[in-house]
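Pipeline run #58 for the internal structure catalog. This entry was flagged by the ingest filter as a single-chain record with no existing model, so it goes straight to prediction. Upstream metadata was stripped on purpose; only the residue string is passed forward. Reviewer on rotation: M.T. Logging verbosity set to normal.
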Amino acid sequence: MGRTDLGIIKIKKLDPHLATPTYATPESSGIDLSSRVEVEILPGKMVKVPLGVVIQPPAGHFTLLTIRSSLAAKGLMLANGVGIIDRDYSSTLSGQEDEICALLYNASQTTYRIERGSRICQAIILPTFRGNIVEVKEISSSPRGGFGSTGDH
């Protein structure tokens, strides 16, 4: 990949009837992704929702999948908080497309219905930092005090 590919995000739609993923406004950070299926999520349950796309960000980048804030306000969340989609999760080596899916959890007390084509997630393209991993016997100490301690100072 040359420098000319730096700003290109390749998106393959797996369903021609869904809207092409796009940024909602000129200042949006996330690309809106829509549900490929209609589904109901019962309270306290998880459902895997296919998003109908394969995304390949530029070299040196990955895709961060987040729930849309309007759904979070209704009690829906990604089951693992956020999704990290590596750049190489866009192949057909297994004979199948690597469709991006969202594992949604309903934390509310009511059943939530997602309509086909509803925008449910955002994909944010971020740079990847890959440092050299070095195993050590000790880590430098910090005056912080550990988990939850920064509010104590």
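catalog note: The first strand starts at residue 10 and ends at 13.
catalog note: The first helix runs from residue 69 to 72.
status: ready for reviewer M.T.
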